[in-house]
What does this fold into?
Amino acid sequence: MLDNSLKMTENHNHSHHSTENTKKDVSAPANNLKIGNYILNETLGCGTFAKVKRAEHQQTGHQVAIKVLNRQKISNLEVAGKIRREIQNLKLFRHPHIIKMYEVINTSTDIFMVMEYVSGGELFDYIVKKGRLEVGESRKFFQQIISGVDYCHRHMVVHRDLKPENLLLDQRGNVKIADFGLSNMMKDGDFLDTSCGSPNYAAPEVISGKLYAGPEVDVWSCGVILFALLCGTLPFDDPHVPALFRKIKEGIFTVPSFITRDCSAIIHHMLQVDPIARATIAQIKDYAWFKEELPEYLFPRPGSLDVLVIDEEVVSLVCMKLKCTEQDVIQALEVDDQSNPLRIAYNLIVDNKISKHIGPPNSIDDFVYSSTPPASSWKDFENLKISPGGMTFSGANLPRTNSTPPVTPHKLGGVANEMSFEGSRKKRWRLGIRSDSTPCNIMNEVFKAMKRCGFEWKIINPFLVIARMPFDKEAPLRQVKVCIRLYEVDNKKTCLLDFQNVSSFKDSDLNNTHKIVTELENHRNRNPSASSEDSATDRENHEILEFFEICGRLIAELSQERP
It folds into this structure.
């Protein structure tokens, strides 16, 4: 049986809004309080500086969880930065496997974070209760986690504290990534160096105080989580912290014999000590084991989420419940105001509509409704901002871990040497063309130069273009595409035009697809005896040469002084 006395003495500083928290008070107050449009009910859980209450949205009747943060406690514990980051990043996200935040209400004494209500508890408690999970269930959880983490990284956010305690389960048993207090924004060319998170799940470069880009440390944590799902234990565990850090730095762990070869390969790839050799999310998605029974909504096709999809049925419900017009609701969704009551009501109804499905969202449309980001994502061209020894449990031997906030070595006492790093080093790499001109002027010159070069191109967004040379019947194997992206650098004082070989893009990314395919087929028919090995080598060499040819021609054209 689980030793509750041991679990209760853990210094668990999280205040998730699940019904499985370590401290509970499920007795509702006699006189329910009201804050904004919400009626507060019972307390779901308490943490060091916050408590979480279940609440009801007065107009729609839907349940939410409200995290109540006391301003005085926040000030005394010096965690204002943690709260600010969590609010900032949760405002960005609308993903079916990331906890949603609907609004923030401020008073003179408290901060109220209105969030999605999740009733299934922590994944940690689920693993402890069931022990190691079946492969199919582990894969489902892992796929959902990777989908959410991939979404964070695409929005330039690294979580840095991924662990089963920060993964909640909804009423249908689906994962919701929570607790973004240690997350940070990533900037192209910049590196992070803060040692934070939970030691058992932290990457070697994090506990060593080395520089890291961001995504690779989340991948390591996901590898540890996958191991925990399949084995019910942690790959790196030791009651003596220096010994634990030594195991992590050396990558010392053993995969049990009952783990299949495919699973073991993914785990070993994700838990590579060398971050360069470590698996990327793109590589994880390519594993056959990962792709088995993979729902389409988890990784929608590029471009399928580039438009704001509005559910007309939900708009009608908002109009009926809040006594407004359809135009009022649509306008509220198009304006970047997260506190607008019509927008909040719309999001609540959409999320609750999706939650009534028997399983996860079954279509891309369902995913779009549940993941539409703030309206700021669709601002006009001119206003676009360039963004570049564990306790023994009956079910599983999985110790609950505590997160270490961003610290400097002197705050770690005896463990200082293990977590030390040299000040706040910042290293930057820069490739491409730099310019002091405005972003719009730069891109205008790029388009003119591509036109003069006779290139074909597709505009992904105003500052991201995929270009290639025009189709040549004499060289039908020519498929090289170049990604041309504009970044702001040096605190937005200058811009950097970067070039990347993206020959893996599909032909459908550009026009004249049918013509290209037809010509390729004709070429193959004319040369049926061509060696596939020679063809692959020739193509590889051709891609490298043509990439540099495209870049060289464009750079030469841009460097020409014109009246």
Summary: Residues 532-559 form the longest helix (28 residues). The mean pLDDT is 75. The chain has four domains: 4-118, 123-302+386-419, 312-351+360-382, 433-559.
